[in-house]
Structures are given as structure tokens and as C-alpha cells.
């Protein structure tokens, strides 16, 4: 019971941190002649602020009619997203995928599902993005945050935080959120390690969590191992 209460308290802090930066929507993944610049979405959510990664479609010919059609639907999806028409954006991004699947289109589909409150489908779409671009840590972070905060599937969240940090060990926000999950599970030594690295990366909110985790660990040690 105490652990559950701890996680509810910690997850509120985690949600505030994750929502602070604006969501970076994936840029168009198609050839440079058709590519628009990265779009910063004002709507706040769980998404990482790491730079987006180009997909496998970058090297494809611009004369391919399927790529041109996919680009048109991708741009339409971005237009609908900017209008906060998330269902319209979802429909357009899915049509882009039907024309030519790309990691960024799947990533944006996931963002749409997240905005619409369908967490399971959001996670599935981030996984499909990772299947095409395994090195993008932002998809791992989004899966971890949503599985921890919304689905309370902490083991899965841990797996994806670890994967994200193996790709980008310098991501302080990911380390902070990872620490919150470990803290809520009573894994205080590991949580302290993540909080310390988050503080070193400039995540100021981690300082309070670090002090609290150290105090709880000391109390546990004094009490002979009792939580």
C-alpha cells in the first residue's frame, strides 16, 4: 500500500516534468527536396524532446509516385495536428503509411493515438516506429512514460528506459523518470543512481527526489531493512 501511494506521488512529479517541453513531432522523413523543417507542437504530452531521427525512406527517389503520395498525406497529417484535429491527423498519417511505411509516420500515428487517449495503440505504433528505426530513443521514452503513468506496467517501463539510455546516456529527463519508477518500487539504491545522473545533466527537480530517496534508504538501514 505504501509503495502504491509513493508511486502516485512520484508520478505526478514525473508527469509535470514530461509535460514541460513542447512535443516535437517527427519531421517529414522523405527526401530533402520534399522535406519541411521540424515542427514543434505546443500541445504538452509525455513525448521526449530529443531530436527526431530520419527514417529509412530518406534515400528513396523523389520520382516514386508512392513516395510523393506518402509525402502529401504526411504533410496533411501535420496540418491537421496543428489544427488540433487529432483524428484527422491520424487518418492522414495512416494513409501516408499505406503509401510508404516510415518510422516517423508511425511515430506520429502514436502521438495521435496518445492525444486521443488510446494508450495501447500508441504504444503499438511507437513499437512499429522502432522496428523501422531501432536507434530512436524518443519512442522508447514515450513507451516507458505511458506504460508507467497510464498502464502502471513498471517492468515494461524499466525495459524501455534502459533501452533509451543505452542509446542516449546523456538524457537527464529519462534518467529522472527512470529513477521515479525505481523509487516507487522500493529499489532505492538504483533510484539514487539515476537521480544523481539526472542532477548532473541539469534536471533540477531530481535534487529533491534524490534527497528523499537517500533519507528513505537511511531510514530503511536503521530499521533493519524495513521499508
UniProtKB/TrEMBL annotation:
Keyword line: Repeat, TPR repeat
SMART domains reported for this sequence: TPR
Gene3D superfamilies assigned to the protein according to its UniProt record, in alphabetical order: Tetratricopeptide repeat domain
InterPro entries hit by this protein: CellSynth/LPSAsmb/PSIAsmb (IPR051012), TPR-like_helical_dom_sf (IPR011990), TPR_rpt (IPR019734)
Lineage: superkingdom: Eukaryota
Repeat (TPR) residue spans along the chain: 103-136, 172-205
Pfam families from the UniProt entry: TPR_1 (PF00515), TPR_19 (PF14559)
Protein name: TPR-like protein
Provenance organism: Rhizophlyctis rosea
Taxonomic lineage of the native organism: Eukaryota, Fungi, Fungi incertae sedis, Chytridiomycota, Chytridiomycota incertae sedis
Amino acid at each position: 500500500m505504501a509503495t502504491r501511494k509513493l508511486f502516485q506521488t512520484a508520478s505526478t512529479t514525473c508527469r509535470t516534468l514530461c509535460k514541460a517541453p513542447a512535443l516535437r513531432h517527427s519531421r517529414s522523413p522523405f527526401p530533402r527536396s520534399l522535406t519541411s523543417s521540424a515542427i514543434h507542437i505546443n500541445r504538452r504530452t509525455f513525448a521526449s524532446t530529443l531530436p527526431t531521427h530520419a527514417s529509412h525512406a530518406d534515400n528513396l527517389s523523389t520520382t516514386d509516385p508512392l513516395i510523393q503520395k506518402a509525402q502529401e498525406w504526411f504533410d496533411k497529417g501535420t496540418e491537421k495536428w496543428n489544427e488540433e484535429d487529432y483524428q484527422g491527423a491520424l487518418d492522414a498519417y495512416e494513409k501516408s503509411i499505406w503509401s510508404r511505411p516510415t518510422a516517423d509516420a508511425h511515430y506520429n500515428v502514436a502521438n495521435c493515438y496518445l492525444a486521443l487517449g488510446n494508450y495501447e495503440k500508441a504504444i503499438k505504433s511507437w513499437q512499429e516506429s522502432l522496428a523501422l528505426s531501432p536507434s530512436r530513443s524518443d519512442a522508447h521514452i514515450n513507451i516507458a512514460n505511458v506504460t508507467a503513468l497510464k498502464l502502471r506496467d513498471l517492468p515494461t517501463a524499466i525495459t524501455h528506459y534502459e533501452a533509451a539510455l543505452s542509446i542516449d546516456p546523456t538524457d537527464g529527463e529519462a534518467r529522472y523518470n527512470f529513477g521515479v519508477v525505481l523509487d516507487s518500487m522500493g529499489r532505492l539504491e538504483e533510484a539514487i543512481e539515476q537521480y544523481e545522473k539526472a542532477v548532473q545533466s541539469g534536471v533540477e527537480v531530481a535534487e529533491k527526489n534524490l534527497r528523499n530517496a537517500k533519507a528513505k534508504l537511511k531510514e530503511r538501514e536503521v530499521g533493519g531493512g524495513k521499508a
